[in-house]
Each structure stands twice: as structure tokens, then as C-alpha cells.
Amino acid sequence: MSATEFSAGSGSGAGDHRPRPVVAVVLVAAGSGQRLGYGMPKARVPLGGEPILMHALRGVVASGVAQQVCVALPAGDGSLRQMCDDFKDELVDGGPLLTVVEGGGTRAESVRSALSALEEGTQAVLVHDAARALTPESVFLRVVDSLAAGALAVIPVVPVVDTVKTVEATRDDDARIAPEIVVGTAPREKLRAVQTPQGFDLDTLLKAHREVAGFSEAQAAAVTDDAMLVERLGIPVHAVRGASQSLKITTPLDLIIAEGLLEGPLGARWVEG
Ligand code: C5P
User: Fold this and answer.
1) pTM beyond 0.70
2) Residue nearest to atom 7 of ligand 1 (CA)
3) Rounded CA gap, 50 and 260, in Å?
4) Considering only CA atoms, which residue is closest to atom 14 of ligand 1?
5) pLDDT digits (tens, 9 = 90+) for 114-138
6) What are the structural domains, with CATH classification, of the chain?
7) How far is the CA of 28 from the centre of ligand 1 (A)?
């Protein structure tokens, strides 16, 4: 199905009357969170007194874009499963269907596990990292509006502030001077840091993930987002504006920043920034 065939779904976009597709959000939350150093899955780490996953779930639901939210949880994590069950009771009538699946050993496997549990009639899917728990609802809306306007793949991005270089490990004698050597400098004005939710026409994303079946272990490990799989198919990936609050909580410093966002002047969650 092409994105232009999307029928009316959950209503019109803000400011215009383009029909929205029937959207499912895949919320990947099965990571180990080792870099955060809490000794528990990242989704369970407390942020402002609640697990990171709860913030992510509330953000997705507040955006109002999803008919279904499918959460990929760490295998065997009863506590997060219970939390999702409790959250179902909080959802008012007309809220999205909440489904839970067991994630896999890689992010891509967790995405595929969730894709296999989507409801019949789903037209588009937003793949979102639970670790980006404070993503403003405006970002969800921009992604869905772009899909409604005809994109088969769309990602939220922000400009890169650092100069970015490519490096290689130094060999032989040079290793005494420094561990790496610069081999190139990317033009910064063309670089973007990529966030989630990444939005796709469902058939396009399913096709992109089928390609991974032929990947070597090293290639599979290098799949860090879904858009790169769609790029391999030669399908255009569009970019809309992301937000600084959509930071991926990965290190203890990120957690401090996220706590600050909740407590500071941006305390109202999911506001634009
Ligand atoms: O590890 P990384 O920071 O790339 O993880 C991004 C997101 O993917 C996180 O929300 C994490 O929970 C999720 N993930 C997953 N299954 C994995 C690895 C990561 O759902 N096996």
C-alpha cells in the first residue's frame, strides 16, 4: 500500500484537514540499560519517581496519534508487564489498545517482535525508543502529518552542534602517539542527529526488516535505527524537526538532564523545545 492510499484514521492534523493513517506505536523498552549503571533494565529506572517506561507511555498516549501501542519488554520482566497492565486501567475510553510483547537480543529483534503483534488494519507504524521518554507530543504529530502527506518513511532530527570526524585505529608506530587517527571531517551543516519516533508505512517497514534476515551477525549488530533499513531499499526517508527534550536517556548524565527537565521551567512534560 502506498502512503497516499491512507484512509481517514484518528482525525485531522493540527491546522489542516489531511486524513491521518491508522497508526500503531511500537515502543521498544527491552534494552539492558547497562550504560546507565542501575543494575536493572533501563525502562525500570526511576525518573521523577516513576519508571522511565511510564513517562514514555504517557507521552505516546498524550500525543493521541496511536490506535495501538505495542511495548517490547525485557524477557521475563514481570514488574514492567504488571506496570503496563495497571496502565491499561488508567486509559480512558477511546485510548489506544495497549499490547505487550517480549523483546529480543537486539533493538531490531525487539521491533520485529512488536511488529508481529500489530492489529489488522494498521497502516502506519511509529517506532519509538522508551529511552526517549520526554519526547514532546508535537514531534509525534509532525511525524504522523508527514506520513499523511505521502512520506513512506520519516524521522525527527536535530542539527549537530559538534564538528564530527571519522577516525580509524592507529597502527604500528603511530599507536604510541595516539590511539586513533582522523580520516575525514563531515560537513556539519549537512549533519543531523536522529531521534525517534520514526514513522513508516507499515508494508515498507515490514519489507525493510525482512532484508535483515540475510544479514551477518556483524551487519545485524550495526542496525541502530529502522530508517537505515528503509534507506537500503532506495526509498526516500524524509526528515522533520525533532526536539532537544527527546534526548535518549543512556548515561547517568542524561538521567540528570531528564530529571532537570521534569523539575525545571520545562516541567510541563512534552512541551516544545
Ligand atoms: O541500546 P539503545 O540505546 O540503542 O536502545 C534504544 C532503545 O531500544 C531503548 O529504548 C531500548 O530499551 C530498546 N532496545 C530494545 N531491545 C534491545 C535493545 C534495545 O527494545 N535488545
Assistant:
1) yes
2) 129
3) 14
4) 31
5) 999 999 999 999 999 999 999 999 9
6) 3-270 (3.90.550.10)
7) 6
